[in-house]
Amino acid sequence: MSGAAQGRPIRVVPMRGGGLLVAAPAPVLAPAKAKLTYRGGPLLSAVQVVTVFWGAAWDEATADATAHGLNAFFQFVVTSPYIDQLSEYNTPQQKIGAGRYVGTARVTNSAPGANVTDSAIQELLQAEVARKALPAPTANTVYFAFLPPGVTVVAGSERSCQAFCGYHDRSAGGLYYAVVPYPNCSGCLGNLRSLDALTSVCSHELAEAITDPVPGQGWYETPMARSATSVPGRTRRSAPTRYSCSGRTARRRVFELRFIFGASC
User: What is the CA radius of gyration of the chain?
Assistant: First the structure.
């Protein structure tokens, strides 16, 4: 059973607010820092990424170019210094290292509709794996499901572009997956191009899928109090680094690194 169905928090990328993830609260005394702890669950020690683009809309020129850009991003990032930085989350039995971009698929024999539920996305992934349209899962596979422009994702009581810009979880059938709706709103776009906004969400979810593939069972924090980047009522942590294609910048907690992406990105 998925996290949404069980009522536990799935790992989301929250909305932006004026360039921040959420609007800053009224000034308060700085709370004690939350502690990130390992809960004993699995990690994706050598992540294998499969991208899945749902709907014939991805064959249109602009969307097609975005899909190619996303695939190029994953081809780069899974063996980049971004993954090396996640080694700080190694455990005695699980060492995080370079991953692999396995491939991509477009599902055009069905359309998601204007609103698509998390359970429908899970069912689609399971069905595509069963008919061998997607690579079979391994212990390190995560499927990134992308929805075309104009589609709203409904996860539990929350909707994309109202409560989140992306999330990851483990499906009822045991697949690790991430859902990345198209950024149809300023809250998910910020001041970025669509591709850059999407890669920002993807880098966040990739890091969290590696370090906490079953939300709450890997590396996880429970804030002792809200902070400016917290979503009220939800526990979460930020990925250690963000990448975007045009900005070519990775922002880390302590310092800033710069990497040059290939021309295709």
Answer: 17
